[in-house]
Amino acid sequence: MKICMLVMCRATEGALADNVCDRALYRRSGPVREPISQAALPRIQALPGVIAATETSTLPPYGGIGTEVRIPGKTHTERWDALFQLVSEGYADTLGLRITRGRMLNSAEVTAARRVAVVNQTLVDRYFGGDDPIGQHIELSMLKTFEMPVPDPLFEIIGVMSDAKNQGLEDPPRPEVLVPYSVAGGFFRGVMVRTAGDPAALMNSVRREIWAVDRGAALADSGTLEEYLARFSYAAPRFSLTLLSVFAGVGLVLVAIGVYSVIAYAVSRQIHEIGIHMALETQQQDILRLVLRMTLRLVKIGLALGLAGSFAVTRLLASQLWGVSPHDPATFVSVAAAVALAALVACYFPARRAMNVAPIVALRQE
To answer: Do 259 and 208 share a domain, yes or no?
Structure first.
């Protein structure tokens, strides 16, 4: 049985942007190379509006099969790990990756299942240091344990590609290796397609080309990579953001209510003093300044305590943050400004009441 997944998206600049590629995922067993991968890719690539198409073993940005790696001639004490993907020659073009050194796999190497590999820049920086990786070899231990094991999985490095997210959108890229999909069977395979226009317009065409090769292919899922990311990457952060926004809004309302209550009480306690000021023909602006001074005194104390508490719990929030530092100054300044603004708005009504008090009434309230 073959399980298929089709996902399509519009072409964009850069690697692994929100819309990058289309993908069809199916499980294959038996021979290393099957007609569905050999015949479907050229047919899909020939469709109008298709920029590039490739086969892959995993779906970005959660790409790669974990493996221990060994580099002949390199000694180390700790375990060296990497991710690897079984891909075809169009992988870099489909995902918008740059080949910074050497070259990408070609169709002859993929067809012949040659032991060649392309590695990402993170792997070069971490395991090769200042050495040139081109022409050196890397062993992928996991291939020895496949359903159809690959004996002596030693690959010659022929190229270096730019980094792309391969363990989710939050974490930095891990070392990664691309090898021809034809070197191993018995694993998931996917077809990713980069389109020039609306991916939805090509979805049915890609399905037809796959079914033309294999009518038994069951399409289990459809949608764009952006939709895939929305389900598996953005859903939890969006829920957390919504929840935190609700709590923040409630907190801001409580700040306003608290400031209003305290200032209203303070103004009521100082009605007699305010009446004396009014009897001495003090300007309303002076009364407003008096109320504002009381408000700002409370706000400063509250902000000082709040900021100190915020800095104390940033370690607990660090795992929930994405693309922003736990000590981001812009965030702290904007939050402090929002709280101060809410407090000033809350003091408006007590201040207005104080400015409109009749002196004779205020003097009688002692």
So the answer is: no
Query: How is residue 182 annotated by DSSP?
Result: G
Q: Identify whether residues 209 and 248 lie together within a single domain.
A: no
User: Which pLDDT belongs to residue 319?
Assistant: 62
Using an 8 Å Cβ cutoff, are 114 and 182 in contact? no
- C-alpha of 73 from chain center: 37
Per residue in 274-286, pLDDT tens? Answer: 666 666 655 667 7
Domain that holds residue 327: 244-363
Q: Are residues 324 and 207 in the same domain?
A: no
Give the list of residues 6+ apart from residue 209 with CB closer than 8 angstroms, or none.
40, 43, 44, 47
Say whether both 208 and 302 belong to one domain.
no
- 159 and 74 in a common domain: yes
The reply to whether 22 and 121 lie within a common domain is yes
What is the pLDDT, as a whole number, of residue 15? 40
**How large is the average pLDDT for residues 172-195?**
83
Strands 154-161, 116-120: pairing kind: parallel
Do 215 and 251 lie in one domain? The reply is: no
CA–CA distance, 314 with 268 (Å, rounded to integer)? 39
Number of H helices, E strands in the chain: 13, 13
Q: How much of the chain is helix, strand and coil, in % rounded to 5?
A: 45, 20, 35
Residue pair 133/119 in contact (Cβ under 8 Å)? The answer is yes
Please state the rounded mean pLDDT for residues 170-182: 89
